[in-house]
Amino acid sequence: MSIIYVLLPAAMVLAAFFVWAFVRAVRRGQYDDLDTPAVRMLHDDDPVTKP
To answer: Of the chain's two ends, which shows fewer C-beta atoms within 10 Å, N or C?
Structure first.
């Protein structure tokens, strides 16, 4: 039963870290463009010019 005094605060700190990381990613614009990466492979490459 005494292990709960260690695991509960550790779980709360870990959860707070993940919430902080998510909020930081959202504020920095990590999730702004969800469509372009999915279709990026369909775009043509730039033509290679020969010297």
So the answer is: C
Classify residue 19: in a domain, yes or no: yes
Nearest-angstrom CA–CA distance, 17 and 10: 11
Measured distance CA(38)–CA(2) in Å, rounded: 49
Angle, alpha carbons 37-41-42 (nearest 5°): 110
Total of domains in the chain: 1
For 15-34, the pLDDT digits (tens) are: 999 999 999 999 998 888 87
